[in-house]
Each structure stands twice: as structure tokens, then as C-alpha cells.
Amino acid sequence: MNSYDVVKRPIITEHSMDQMADRKYTFEVAPEANKIEIKKAVEEIFGVKVEKVTTMRVLGKIKRMGANSGKRPDWKKAIVKITEDSKTIEFFDGLM
């Protein structure tokens, strides 16, 4: 599994934007990825130094369409804290 398979996409919400002041960035990651793999992938893709990784499983919501009901897929979220001496992730700089 390469780095781009581990980190799927950034999560852009009000809460994740507020956390960027604390040098924390939120990503959707592969469900089978562990914290060590996530740390290596973020360091390789963005060229930053990761201090801490927090992960959580997000359960998919139950959705209805008339009488039919279905479920969105479960996914995994990672909050990555980068070190103080590390540069910021440029992708997020344009969003602030």
C-alpha cells in the first residue's frame, strides 16, 4: 500500500479549520491503516514532521429513500498534529 492509498482525502469542516490554528489537520484514511502508516504517509506526501496521530472510526449513517433504506459506508478519520518547527501543509493554507 503506497502513501496515496493510506491518505484518501482531507476533511474540510468548520471544526477542522479551527484546529488548524493548533497545527492539527484532518484526513480520511484507509480503514486498515494504522497510526504508524498514517504518520509515514503524511510525512512523505506533504514533507512535514508529524508529532502525533489520533484515529477514529466513523460509522455510516442510515439513509432512507421512500420505503427503501440503506447505509452509507463506515470510514476512518485521522487527526494529524505536526511539530512546531515543521512547515504548514500548503493545501490547507489557501482555504483559510
Strand and helix layout:
Blueprint lengths: L2 H4 E4 L3 H6 L4 E6 L5 H12 L3 E9 L3 E4 L2 E4 L3 E8 L7 H4 L3
Antiparallel strand pairs: 1-2, 2-6, 3-6, 4-5
Features:
96 residues; alpha+beta; Alpha-Beta Plaits; four-stranded antiparallel beta sheet; two-stranded antiparallel sheet; 4 helices; 36% strand; globular
Q: How many E-type strands?
A: 6
Q: What does the average pLDDT come to? A: 92
- Note the total helix count: 4
Radius of gyration: 15 Å
Could you estimate the helical fraction of the residues in percent?
Answer: 25-40%
| The level-1 CATH class | Alpha Beta
Q: Can you tell me the residue ranges where pLDDT is under 50 for at least 5 consecutive residues? A: none
Query: What is the CATH-assigned architecture?
Result: 2-Layer Sandwich
Strand count, sense and barrel status of the largest sheet are: 4 strands, antiparallel
How is this structure best summarized?
This protein has helices at 3-6, 14-19, 35-46, 90-93, and strands at 7-10, 24-29, 50-58, 62-65, 68-71, 75-82. It has 96 residues and is of the alpha+beta class.
Explain this structure:
Helices cover 27% and strands 36% of the residues. It is of the alpha+beta class and 96 residues long. The protein has one domain (3-83): 2-Layer Sandwich (Alpha-Beta Plaits). The strands form two sheets. The protein has a four-stranded antiparallel sheet. Strands 4-5 form a two-stranded antiparallel ribbon. A hairpin with a 2-residue loop joins strand 4 (62-65) and strand 5. The radius of gyration is 15 Å and the shape is globular. The mean pLDDT is 92.
